[in-house]
Amino acid sequence: MDVPSALVHRLFYPQVPAVMSAQRRGRVSAMPVVSYASISDSPPLLAVSCNPDGFTCKLAVGAKAFSLSVMPRSSMSSVERLAQVRGADVKDKLESVGLAHGSGTVLPVPVIEGAEAVLECQLRSNRQEGDHVLLVGLVKAAHASDAFSEFWDFSRYSPILYAGWRGGLTTYPPDKLRPGALRGRRAGRGRSRPSTG
CATH number of the domain that 42 lies in? Predict the structure, then answer.
């Protein structure tokens, strides 16, 4: 099967989504992201791809800092709501979806309570690539729950596995995945990804 260019990103699913958060001038915004990667160990750098029109992306660029939080499966409904609420419409998007947060230990970035891992990042660069912006962050601090000790202990941490957007976050526990479980709409019908911002 030849894969249409509009569906190439789906070849990488399932992904563990992270929540990218930023705050500036009394506003807090966040969005789930699946296009992110560690790109350097020394210095520790990561890259996040996001919609340049999204409020969260604009806030991160303006603040020159952001956080990435890895959330447990138990927070899946809140992570899904982050993709449905426009950051520009609320003062604190995390609070609006029921995610309590504090401030980073090194940077003034939102740190979500109950996250399995949090990375505090200073924005090093941002660059337009196609229809998205690639944000490169220098990791200034990283924190993880007791479920991490060099590697994740999946008996203690159950990740969200993002498998696409079909009117809501499409994810399944690994034991529920079966051939054809993710079949659905044809390309071009409905939204393939959540709105971001």
Answer: 2.30.110.10
